User: What shape does this take?
Amino acid sequence: MSKTSSLFRTRKKRIYHLDDEKFYLAMKENCLFHYTHNKDYKRILDEAGFSPDDIKSYDDLAKIPFLPTLYFKHHKLLSLKKNHYIVKATSSGTSGKNVSLIGLTLSDLLRGWDMVRNVFAYHHLWSLKPHRYIIFGYQPHKGNDKAIAKTAHGFTFVSPARSKDYAIRWTKDGYKVDLDNLERKFIKYSKGRTPVRTLGFPAYTYFLLEQMKDKGIRLKMPKGSIITLGGGWKSFYKEKVDKETFYNLVNEVLGIDDKHVFEFFGAVEHPILYTDCRYHHFHIPNYARVIIRDIETLQPVKPGEVGLINLLTPMSKGTPLLSVMTDDLGILHEETCPCGEKSPYLEILGRSGLEDIKTCAAGAEELLKGSKS
Assistant: This one.
């Protein structure tokens, strides 16, 4: 078994017990693989004066040349021939411009499955009880390769699905936002016994709940219902509210307390599943590491300081995603969390404001704006 596959088989009870030695060895293995199989990645490392042999300890991981997410939006960086890829996922909007193309092999998907299985088990998200799914995102369509759509569709298999409803529905005229339909569904499902699970952009969830609140709608969703969020606020940062305000709104409109609200974090360029703890902190799992870098010097900063979020993982053989620089600002906290996990946790503050950055929610944002006009 490869060192990377061994890392991703971390048992569910130990996913937040960081093994730096195992992680560093998997990163070195993955770096060497891409260096020998991807001439463009080899050129990038060579021009930076870096070699996989320079990774001699865990501390050397910060020296791996990072690639900004913007790079993947303008360059294909696949390490294998086309027949090796099982899935090709994209980010960005509906226009097809500034799209990150990430190729995943069978071994990548198997490692991803090991990760998802254990993370969901740790957070008690698997269920044999049927649920109704309300997705604040795209309805699946054969022409939609966005990673966020694939992720949302996959989530509907975490428990048996009695029904699936989507905020962004496919019509003969393309994708259209229909939050009013989801309002009707919430009202209908609140009268039944089948619990509801949601997933999707928190901005969409917030906008619908505010709309329902303004109408005086107050519901009590069936026991076992949960709200799950993913994708961040993206360009809706001006409308973003603090977590306490958001959770209070969920409780007021749907009758679901914050113990049953879960948030996910990830990116097509960093396909790692971060799930918040009971206190809504994104603890770093053993499959990844996070470096916070100074926005001007790009040097690592101390824990507790603000900087750009640099994400590391050896997960993919299909695409060199070892070290990816986002345009998000964040803080890495090392203080003890009340949940009991000792793994550092990531606080995401929002976008840095860098230009020419398009996100996986960009197209959806335009659709939502159009629906409000």
The chain has a mean pLDDT of 88.
